[in-house]
Design goal:
heterodimer; A: about 300 residues; mainly alpha; MetI-like fold; 11 helices; B: about 300 residues; 12 helices; about 75% helix; flat; MetI-like_sf (chain A); transport (chain A); OppC_N (chain A); ABC transporter permease (chain A)
Chain lengths: ~300, ~300
Amino acid sequence: MQSTNDKFKVVGTQLSDAEKISKPSLSFWKDVFIRFRKNKLAMFGLVLLAILIFMAIFGPYMTEYDYKTNDLTNKNQPPSAEHWFGTDDLGRDMFTRTWEGARISIFIGVAAALIDLFIGVAWGGIAGYKGGRTDETMMRAADILSGIPYLLLVILLMVVLGQGLGTMILAMTITGWINMSRIVRGQVLMLKSQEYVLASKTLGANTTRIMGKHLIPNSMGPILVTMTLTVPSAIFTEAYLGFLGLGLTPPLASWGTMANDGLPALRYYPWRLFFPAIFICLTIFAFNVVGDGLRDALDPRSRK
Amino acid sequence: MAKYIGKRLLYMIISLWLIVTATFFLMRVAPGNPFASEKKLPPEIEANLQAHYGLDKPWYQQYTDYLVNVVTWDFGPSFKYKSQTVNDLISEGFPVSFLLGMEAIFIAVALGVLFGVIAALKQNKWQDYTTMAIAVLGISVPSFIMASFLQYFLAIKLGVFPVARWESFQHTILPAIALAAGPMAYIARLTRSSMIEVLANDYIKTAKAKGLSSGVITVKHAMRNALLPVVTYLGPLTASILTGSFVIEKIFGIPGLGFHFVTSITNRDYTVIMGVTVFYSIILLVAILLVDIAYGIIDPRIKLAGGKKGE
């Protein structure tokens, strides 16, 4: 049987249809945002984070008490309408102190993450872009520094340099930037051989422009994820140091020092440990989930 | 391989030298005299004390002495407890910490791998969601908070376990769990993601097509490859167990090295702080090196000497 062309007919597909864009075009970050929004756990973390930050800003003003006034007639009160989270051994209102502590903990976390960001991006960016000897030397230096146990170094510095906000942030960032620099270096190494960078070079762009305009913005995804995950680890370190008795000096309150103060009283006044402890966990949890969600949203393999 | 180990050893020694040097100079700028007490010491006695501890020598000689001492494994005397040396403290406290740490590592690896494998096999089912929810919680709860909660609810309120001290196996359970919780959660997540990746491979399909039972496929084919990332995590795991141990020993009153370390921080007993820091750094660096070498041996796909990194 002979088949001829007249037995077939065009049902409607046209060549131009193949070129048609059926979905609205999305920028990279819009796409990421849509995928992030679908992740319920991450969205929950984001909401939680918003609440925590809101309370850190306004919480201390919600009561008539301030965080450092002692009231020895009302010490170790359980939570009540008067003192929502109870009082501590000097009669200070735990609610006010908890949110005062939130400010410090979140501040430390964000400050450490920002400093890590600047040093890490500069170090990793230069090493990755220059390559060769410079790269080798810079990354070996980072390798050697990263051999120093992080918490031990932080403890040592806090003991010797004295306790304070500045020392704490300094101690955390001395080796904290290494992770960021490795990630940025990897990104830059991968991106710098791409055609658009070559095109930009051909057009006469200098190093600063290529870095600032092409390499760093295109590495923003992994950088953002690393930053979000640095914050909880800094908050953890702060709490840990506070718990070792190396935290901030009274009457300043951080969650770590409050937990440390509460520990000896655990048997009789458990709320003194529980409130700061719960908020440490919630904050770390929120940042972790948001960071995980961001990573998944940025991963092109997770696209459906 | 030999070249790789040599290179790693060199870096390790440089790292250690940096640590020792940093601790030495930090000790010198540390505020306060080690012999400071309420009573003012007569100058002769103070001079004698200084001479006894070698503090009257110029700094460069003290520094070289300190380096030599560390190399010969002598971390010097404790400034606060005259009859005790740092070596005494280490040989007394470290076995206890070691036992606790090993128990915690065992719990973390065994349960972490189990949860991770279950979650991967039941991907996107309730088992997966439950274990991963527990894992996220485990990562978010710092060990010292976990420890105080366990102590409060299980020991003080319910009386199931002893509250504190270090006497029998029962006493070790709560601290070991508290120490293991975070790493366990991390291992569970690590195992899950690498298991999922491995299960999508063609050789798993081949194994299924051959008619092997799912148990054999999971254990012999999938897990062998999926567990490699867990092996790399053993180095950081040691670090987190070691440092986590400080606070856990403080909470449960366990007479380990971590407990002594925390006490020496409170007492500002500088030589002990420095000695224990150097000691822990050595342990950690050696542990990480061993893990990396072991990784190279276990996974034949990795050629350490070739060093594809940085090329």
